[in-house]
Amino acid sequence: MTRLVILTGATGGIGSSILRGLEGGSDMRVCVLTRNGAFQREGITSITADFSQPGAGYADELAAWIDGHRDIGEIALVLAAASIGPINAIGSFGVAAAENIQINVTSQIRVIDTVVKCAQKNKAPVRIIQFDSGAAYRPIGGWALYCASKAYVSMFLKVLASEHKEYKIVLFDPGVVDTGMQKTIRDADSDAFTDRDYFKSLKDDRKLRDPGDVAKVVLDRYIWDWKAKQLNERCGAYEQG
C-alpha cells in the first residue's frame, strides 16, 4: 500500500523543512503544490499552483495524480501555505483583500475538497495537518484579513472532522517561527499594526522557533505517526517528541 503526501507551502519556512524530511521515503509518494512548479527531484511530483489566481487548473491535476495511484494506503495533506499581507487597517484594502482571501481561503478549500473527493472515490483513509494560528481566535490590529482567513479554514476543517470522524485531522499552532512571514510582519509600516514592536522583540531576543525544529515535531507527531490527542494542538510541549 502506498501513502500519498500532499504538501503546500513547500518553498520556504516550515513547509520546506517538512519536504526535506519526507525525501527518500520508500513507501510514499509526495506531491507539492507550488507557484512555479520548481521541484524536480526523484520521488517528488510538482504541480504548478498559483493560489492567487482563481480558476487555476491545479485541482484537476491534483485529482489526476491521486487517482493515478492504485492501492492507496492513505492520503495525507499538509497545509503550510499562507499569506499575511496586506497588513493594514480595514477601509484601505481595495482589490488586495480579494487576493488574500483567494490565497488563504478559496484555494485552501479547493485543495481540501479535492482530497476528500478523491479519498471517497478511492476509499482511502485521510489525515490533514493544518497550520493554525492564534490569529484565528483573537483580533490583531492590521491583521483583519489574516485573522479572518485563518478562522475560516479552521472552522471548515472542524466541520469536516464532524462529518468524517474517521479522518485524522489536527489544527497545529506552531507558535512564532523564524520564517519569511515573520520578516514581513517586522517590516510592516502600517499604523494600524500596534503589535509590531512585540514581534520585533521576539526576533531580537531570539524567541522565534526554528522551522526545522517545528518540522520535526510535525513529522514525528503527525506524519510518521499519529499522536494527536485533540483537534487543536500547540507547539511547545512536543519538541522533545
Termini Cα gap: 27 Å
The number of distinct helices, counting runs of at least 4 residues, comes to 7
Number of E-type strands: 7
Strand content: 15-25%
Structural class: alpha/beta
The total number of structural domains is 1
Bulk shape: globular
The CATH architecture designation is 3-Layer(aba) Sandwich
What is the CATH third-level topology name?
Answer: Rossmann fold
Q: Low-confidence stretches at least 5 residues in length (pLDDT < 50)?
A: 237-241
* CATH first level: Alpha Beta
Biggest sheet character: 7 strands, parallel
Determine the mean pLDDT.
Answer: 92
Radius of gyration from the CA trace? 18 Å
* H/E series: EHEEHEHEHEHHHE
Helicity range: 40-55%
| Largest sheet strand order | 3-2-1-4-5-6-7
Oligomer: single chain
For the record, what is the CATH homologous superfamily label? NAD(P)-binding Rossmann-like Domain
Protein architecture, described:
The chain is an alpha/beta fold and 241 residues long. The chain has one domain: Rossmann fold (3-Layer(aba) Sandwich). Helices cover 40% and strands 17% of the residues. The protein has seven helices and seven strands. It has a seven-stranded parallel beta sheet, with helices on both faces. Helix 1 links the parallel strand 1 and strand 2. Helix 2 runs parallel beside helix 3 and helix 3 runs parallel beside helix 4. The two termini are 27 Å apart.
